[in-house]
């Protein structure tokens, strides 16, 4: 039987904060087509650390697993922020590619469309949105951007066959961006294991980080907290300070968002 990720595998051991600063919707595909035992181990580790970091920063969360269809993905707009974690590739049809990609991995078009509905709702509600790896690519495609289907010269981005998938990747941060202000550095070392990346940047977005070969490693909307990074700050083998800075900025933005009455609260006052 193929190993699978269970919800219990990723939940933090820390108790939820008694007076949370923000309540966040976390979107993840804990399982996807073709998942491998290595994937299972990575998803367990990465998701648990992402959720633990939210709690450490004073936020509570609700985890939505797009392994199965979501009942109401538009409900993401009712939270204080939306966090999109990694997973498989986005179906090429979502960004205008009809030919199947031979290197495609973990593709689930239904999960993609659920994610787009959640992004649309969170953006319409003016909530901060933070995407990691697949999550960053989803943010780009949601704005009409495209994806590099398979990085040919991949040495900077993932391991060779038979080697560990994840590598330490130098990433240059674009000066003057929100990402630069969050990280406070011109270059960081990110944990990367990706074979795809953002290609044409979506409407209203700018490049916030690049790899040494020019591949896009970060995108953002200069006008609001709509931020994606291609690497994995939620890998404990990477710099803890960068993880704290990125998640901290997101939770801070979600905390500010929580001061704005939610639609249900506004309705109750009428």
Features:
270 residues; alpha/beta; single chain; Rossmann fold; two-stranded antiparallel sheet; gamma-glutamyl-gamma-aminobutyrate hydrolase activity; disordered C terminus
In summary, what is this structure?
With 270 residues, the protein is an alpha/beta fold. It is built from seven helices and eleven strands.
Would you kindly provide a written description of the structure presented here, covering whatever features stand out?
- The strands form two sheets. Strands 2-1-3-4-11-10-9-6-7 form a nine-stranded mixed sheet, with helices on both faces. A two-stranded antiparallel sheet has the order 5-8.
- The protein has helices at about 5-10, 35-55, 110-125, 135-140, 180-185, 240-260, 265-270; strands at about 20-30, 60-65, 80-85, 130, 145-150, 165-175, 185-190, 195-200, 205-210, 215-220, 225-230.
- The chain is globular and about 50 Å long.
- β9 (about 205-210) and β10 (about 215-220) form a beta hairpin.
- The chain is an alpha/beta fold and about 270 residues long.
- About 45% of the residues are buried.
- It has one domain (about 20-270): 3-Layer(aba) Sandwich (Rossmann fold), CATH 3.40.50.880.
- It starts with 6 loop residues before the first helix and ends with a helix.
- The protein is built from seven helices and eleven strands.
Q: Taking all residues together, what is the mean pLDDT?
A: 94
Which series of helices and strands comes N to C? HEHEEHEHEEHEEEEEHH
What is the CA–CA distance across the termini? 54 Å
Question: Strand fraction band?
Answer: 15-25%
Number of domains: 1
Main β-sheet description: 9 strands, mixed
